[in-house]
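Hi there, hope your week has been kind to you so far. Do you reckon you could talk me through the fold, stretch by stretch? I've dropped the whole record in just underneath, so have a look:
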Amino acid sequence: MMINSESIQAAASRIKGKINRTPLTFDSKLNVYIKWENQQKTGAFKIRGAINKILALAPWEQERGLVAVSAGNHGLGVAYAAKLVGAKATVFIPEKTAKNKEESILNYGAIVHKIAGDYSQAEIEAQNYAVKRGATWVSPYNDEQVIAGQATLGLELIDQINPYDSEACLVPVSGGALVSGIGLAFKLNGLKTRIIGIQSKNSAFFHSLYHYGIIKNVVESKSVADGLTGGVEKNSITIPLVRSMLDDFVLVDEEEIERAIAYVWYHYQVIIEGSAAVPFAAVLMNKITVNKPVLIITGCNIQADYHKEICDRWKDLF
C-alpha cells in the first residue's frame, strides 16, 4: 500500500461516524486558528489512526489479538477500537505513564503491561510479545493505515477553513504519524500551507532525525509533554515522510509548555495535556512568526491534580 488520496479518503469513510468532527475556532488576539482535537473520543487524536488500522484488518487478524505500545493516548485508541470490533487488546506502557491514561485503557477492556524503563523499552517488549503470541501489531506511527487515519484530521481542516487564509499548521511531533498525515492530506490536495513540527527539548529525537537524519546526542529527560517522549523505531516510514513534509521544526522547553497549559486554562477554560500545549508554547514565546497559523491541540488526558498544580504555579501571569 502507498499512502495516496484514495487511501486517505478510504480512511475517512471507514472511520466516519465512529469519531468526532472536532471544532475549529479563531482567536483574534493571538491571530491563530485552533483545532480542538482534545474534544475527540478518548480525548485525543490518536483514535483516528487506531480505528482506521483496526477496521482495515481482516477478521482473522483481529481475532489473533491486538498488541500496542503507548505513552497513553494510542493505547486508548487501540483499546477503544478493539472493543468496537470485539477483539482482545494488550497495551504495553512505560512505568511512568500517567495513572489516568492507564486507568482509561483498562476501562475499555484492554490488558495493560507496565514495563520498567522508558517508552523505547516498552516498545521492544511489546513487539517481542506480539511476535511470540502471533498477535497483530498496531504501531502508533510506523504504519501506513495509522498515518492515513491521522491524515483525516488534515482533510477535516481543509473542509473547515479556507486553507489560503493560514500560512502554516503547527503540529506536535512524537513518532511522526500525525504530522506526516496532515502533510500528505495538504500536499495531495494541492495546498502550499507550511507544516511546522513542535517538540519538547527534553525528548528531541525527531528533531534530530529531521535535521541530521540520525538520532545524534539526544539525552531524554522527563517531560510534561509525556505523549511526545520516546525514540523512533529504526527505519520507520515516518522518518522520510517527516523530513519531506516539514518546513520547519521548533523545540520548546518545560516552562514554556507549562505556561501554555495554564494559558489555555485561564483564557478558554479548557484542559489540555502537555503534548497538546507545544504549539501554543511556540506561539506564546514568539518562536513562530507566520500569519494565522493553525494550532493542532492533540489531547486533554492529563492528571487533574497535575493540571491544577501547573495552573496554580503560573496563575499570576494570567
User: Anything to note?
Assistant: The radius of gyration is 18 Å. The chain has a mean pLDDT of 94.
